[in-house]
Amino acid sequence: MPHVVPVSYVLQNGSILIATDYETKKYRNIVANDAVAFLVDITKPNRGILIQGRAKIFERGRDFQEMYKVFHKKFGWVRADPWKEGEAPFVRIEPVKKTSWGL
C-alpha cells in the first residue's frame, strides 16, 4: 500500500537522501519494493515537483558515513540525537521520472 510521510531531505549529486528508522512503515515498504515517489509541494505560490525513482538503503560503510556527515551538518535534530552505523539507515532515491508545476 502506498504510504506518504513528511521527511527531512538533502539533495546530493542529483539524488535525494532521507533518514529513516528500522521500525517505520517507510523502511518496510522500501525493503519490499524499491519503487518510490518523493514530493515537494509549496502551496503559496502553488508549485512543486514529484520525483519517482528507485530507493537504496544504506546502513553501514563509507556511503552511510558520508550521508551522516551531511545530515549532521544540516539538521539540529541529528546533532541532538546522534546515531551510529546499524542504528538507523539512510535512503538514497535515484530519480527515474520528474514532473513539476509552477516552476
Q: How many domains is the backbone divided into? A: 1
The whole-number mean of residue pLDDT values reads 94
Overall geometry? globular
Level-1 CATH class name = Mainly Beta
Please state the structural category. alpha+beta
Can you tell me the CATH superfamily? Electron Transport, Fmn-binding Protein, Chain A
Helix coverage percent: 25-40%
Low-confidence segments, given as residue ranges, are none
| Total DSSP E strands | 5
Beginning-to-end CA distance, first to last residue: 30 Å
Main-sheet strand order equals 1-2-5-4-3
Count of alpha and pi helical runs: 3
N-to-C SSE string, H for helix and E for strand: EEHEEHHE
Largest sheet: 5 strands, antiparallel
Describe the protein in words.
The chain has a single domain (9-101), classed as Pnp Oxidase, Chain A. It has a 5-stranded antiparallel beta sheet with strand order 1-2-5-4-3. The termini are far apart. It is α+β, with helices and mostly antiparallel strands. The protein contains 3 helices and 5 strands; from the N terminus they run ββαββααβ. The chain is globular. The protein has helices at residues 25-32, 61-74, 76-80, and strands at 9-12, 15-19, 35-42, 47-58, 90-101. Strand 3 and strand 4 (47-58) form a beta hairpin. Helices cover 26% and strands 40% of the residues.
Write a concise keyword list for the protein shown above.
about 100 residues; 5 strands; single chain; alpha+beta; globular; Pnp Oxidase, Chain A
Brief summary:
The chain has 103 residues and is of the alpha+beta class.
Topology at a glance:
Layout lengths: L8 E4 L2 E5 L5 H8 L2 E8 L4 E12 L2 H14 L1 H5 L9 E12 L2
Antiparallel strand pairs: 1-2, 2-5, 3-4, 4-5
